[in-house]
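Problem: given the chain below (176 residues), write out its structure.
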Amino acid sequence: MVLRSAPHGVLAGQLLPVWPLLWRTFLITLFVSVLLDVTTFWPFSWRGQTSTIWYQVLLDTRQYGGLLSFAVTTSFIIPFIEECVFRFTLLRLIANISGATWVGIVVSSILFGVGHLGRIDFWRADSIHLLNATWLTVFSICLGWIAVFRRNLTVPIAAHVSRNVLELITMLKAIA
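Solution.
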């Protein structure tokens, strides 16, 4: 099955009927994320990055507008854009070029993971970034299959937002 028609759901403006689904997605994503972080199978990426220093500076200097901007951008805007780019555009484009939906899912997911290595010279990435990129690729494959199966981006966006919100909360709690 190759995707050729536009997805329904969030992109078609049908958000209200899916609130129970969004709530379940949020809770499942939070549970799985905490479980993977606590067991260190997939620790939150901020644990291995020096970027938390900048957020500590924002807290210490009481730059709450900068923190709010960062929180909104990383928790809501970036997940929406990434899902539109990777699950809507790239997945469909690659699936249509290759003639196989699974190829679109896998290739767009690999690109998603590589894009999260945090480096242009990704072949020199440290182990925490490699682990994060690997898990994000797996997460992306799951979101890709869900997007194809449901024919919309509602659940992938909700899961992505949930994951980013939880990571933001744990990071700010750790540096506060």
